[in-house]
User: Fold these one by one.
Assistant:
Number 1:
Amino acid sequence: GAVVSQHPSWVICKSGTSVKIECRSLDFQATTMFWYRQFPKQSLMLMATSNEGSKATYEQGVEKDKFLINHASLTLSTLTVTSAHPEDSSFYICSARASGAETQYFGPGTRLLVL
Amino acid sequence: AQSVTQLDSQVPVFEEAPVELRCNYSSSVSVYLFWYVQYPNQGLQLLLKYLSGSTLVKGINGFEAEFNKSQTSFHLRKPSVHISDTAEYFCAVESSGGSYIPTFGRGTSLIVHP
């Protein structure tokens, strides 16, 4: 149980375009979802926390207008990178947690390359 | 505030040898502790967790970790590693008060040589 999927797994786009990444909890209801960014050979950097039906809480230094997060249902959260630039190229990982649970489950990640 | 220190960025070891990956944390409140493994180009997989109770925690793939409150440590161990254990390992801490926002260490790269 506790499977989290992400789509797409890889995306290559031109600079200036927007990219949407989906995160789904397949077999549980995720009241909270987290979005992380990971640079090569580095740890995960928390970007934002989203609770179903409410606005996401962004970490300091993360531009909320650039990284739009929507958590419209208990099984789906989306991250949209708007007007992507090469410096946005990274590995984006989501995780999901059920209400009251101590453990979060991670998606397989999405590698974004902006040319 | 809480923090996690993984003292070793890289740990090379021969196959079938024992290994210990070190993790120390600091927190002003009670904590939950986690170890995750990340294979190349994949997300994180939970290896084991300490929430309460027995300080020796057993996880998947033959790994175990021991919570030591006095030393604020949660070191990960395996008595005999395999080539397939080559991966990045992350220690994480959460306050048990319910914020549910983890703090990750910088990771330790375990490299198992034949």
Note: Chain B has no helices and twelve strands.
Number 2:
Amino acid sequence: DSGVTQTPKHLITATGQRVTLRCSPRSGDLSVYWYQQSLDQGLQFLIQYYNGEERAKGNILERFSAQQFPDLHSELNLSSLELGDSALYFCASSVEALLTDTQYFGPGTRLTVL
Amino acid sequence: DQQVKQNSPSLSVQEGRISILNCDYTNSMFDYFLWYKKYPAEGPTFLISISSIKDKNEDGRFTVFLNKSAKHLSLHIVPSQPGDSAVYFCAASHNYGQNFVFGPGTRLSVLP
């Protein structure tokens, strides 16, 4: 158990819909990262927040957005969902914002878009 | 275009022998590399890292080697154990603290 929690575990929705994935980092960790793992693409970095501020952006679509709240939990919002958005979404946290910090991953949210 | 490649989708090794997982990258600006292990239905777990100022880093049974001129790194697991069976991801980054790129992963099976 990494100490990072993600809800929900599974999510099934239809194309065109909007969903929110939630992540609670380990106690004391200020940085939160979001990743997408599709079947054929491996892990892709989406976005990083540090202490409430966006820190780095990866291959995140404009239909997706994220935020980190004052209590440091984070939400990833996915809108106008398409079939290709079906994937495992992982959240990770680390103490600081540097890549040299070990990231601790949550168990993931499996999103299925029908 | 994949900047980080793991050309072997899968690898099978006998228990007790050495497992060698390979990773190639194309961006010469990458200066920090990590290996993660992932079991089914779990998030990835950090294994070991190496910065570009080193060519080797060791942690117990795990050793990562970096060949900058060849843009190649490898993860050695000695001796391999059945519990090492998992998918291994290589990841690379430039500019500490910035986003980084994962490879597609290699599924390692360690046979008893």
Note: The radius of gyration of chain B is 13 Å.
